[in-house]
Write a structure and sequence with these properties.
four-stranded antiparallel β-sheet, about 40% helix, alpha+beta
Length: about 80
């Protein structure tokens, strides 16, 4: 099965949260309410440095995806 790079998610137990799931490496889910990121990958010390560099970009892309999706609903 082919998955999109980003998927929107919500949950009634977290009524103010909007989740964006990143399905490609490094896989993660971000809560846009508070920018909390949960990684689905395990990283060693070497990977950690690269991950820190990519985190800012990953959050930016996830937020842009959400903004674009919401704009489509508003049109």
């Amino acid at each position: 099965m082919s998955l999109p790079k980003f998927i929107l998610g919500d949950n009634t137990e977290y009524p103010n949260a909007i989740f964006v799931i990143h399905t490609e490496f490094p896989r993660f889910i971000i809560n846009l309410e508070n920018d909390e990121v949960e990684w689905f990958e395990e990283f060693d010390a070497e990977d950690q440095k690269e991950l820190e560099a990519e985190t800012e970009n990953a959050i930016k892309l996830a937020t842009e995806f959400y903004d674009n999706e919401i704009a489509k609903y508003e049109d």
